[in-house]
Write a structure and sequence with these properties.
Elements (H helix, E strand, L loop, with lengths): L2 H20 L4 H10 L4 H11 L1 H10 L1 H6 L4 H43 L1 H9 L10 H17 L4 H12 L4 H25 L5 H17 L1 H6 L2 H23 L1
Length: about 250
């Protein structure tokens, strides 16, 4: 891989790190950049798991207090994340390149719709409904399991979907929801990376270069993240994801 491609990946990682700090949705930028750098679609998806792992791991550390406060059913969610992520990742490896090509447009459309729903989901999280959520806990676990399966296969937008589930089926605050999301997605991502690595799908040099950029962007450029309005960044990401989804339907359908 050329030095130019590596510099492109590092710069893309920096941008992705800044985007994650401000609005989330960095995967919409990093996934096509990895393909542009010469990786296949499957390699780009696997590398994306590596590149964006630090965001969730650090988020778990930041929300350590909140994690302790929601530990009642956390072990169930960790099991669901582990099993669902494993099944999704094994399906990704087993189904192969052709199936992934056919799935990409629909996966991007699903992720784009989830990202677009972010502000609405946030408003849900800020309000507490009065229905008895304990009666529907089983449905919440089922939906979470399905999302972890999806996340093990592709991953874009799954964090937003998890917030939606917690907003509907619990009374927890946005911080508690983020705590659960970060720690379970971190576990799922680590398992997926192990499966992809064992299958030879991860190209470590570009993945780690982009990871280094994401860490730099997320923490070294925090001041820039505070200056640029997050709402405008979200709009930009949403427009880009719509364009990317339309291109994917043209390219892979």
């Amino acid at each position: 891989m050329s030095l130019t491609s590596l510099l492109l990946l590092f710069a893309g990682g920096v941008l992705g790190g800044v985007i994650n700090v401000m609005a989330g949705g960095a995967g919409f930028m990093t996934f096509p950049l990895l393909i542009a750098a010469g990786l296949t679609e499957m390699e780009a998806n696997a590398a994306n798991f590596v590149a964006l792992l630090p965001a969730n791991v650090v988020g778990s550390v930041v929300y350590a207090k909140e994690i302790g406060e929601v530990r009642k059913n956390l072990w169930i969610r960790m099991i669901l994340a582990a099993v669902g992520g494993t099944l999704g990742s094994l399906l990704f490896v087993w189904a192969g390149e052709a199936s992934f090509h056919r799935a990409i447009p629909w996966l991007l459309m699903f992720a784009t719709a989830s990202f677009a729903a972010g502000p609405t989901i946030k408003r849900w999280l800020e309000r507490h409904s009065n229905f008895d959520v304990s009666r529907w806990l089983w449905l919440s676990f089922l939906l979470e399991f399905l999302v972890y399966c999806y996340g093990g296969y592709f991953g874009l937008g799954m964090g937003i979907i998890m917030l939606a589930i917690h907003s509907i089926f619990s009374h927890m605050s946005v911080h508690h929801a983020n705590a659960i999301r970060n720690i379970t997605i971190s576990l799922m991502t680590l398992i997926s990376i192990a499966i992809f690595a064992r299958s030879g799908l991860i190209r470590w040099l570009p993945a780690l270069v982009m990871m280094a950029g994401a860490v730099t962007g997320g923490y070294g450029m925090a001041k820039i993240a505070r200056v640029i309005p997050a709402a405008r960044v979200r709009i930009g990401i949403l427009c880009w994801s719509i364009v990317l989804t339309c291109f994917a339907f043209w390219r892979y359908s």
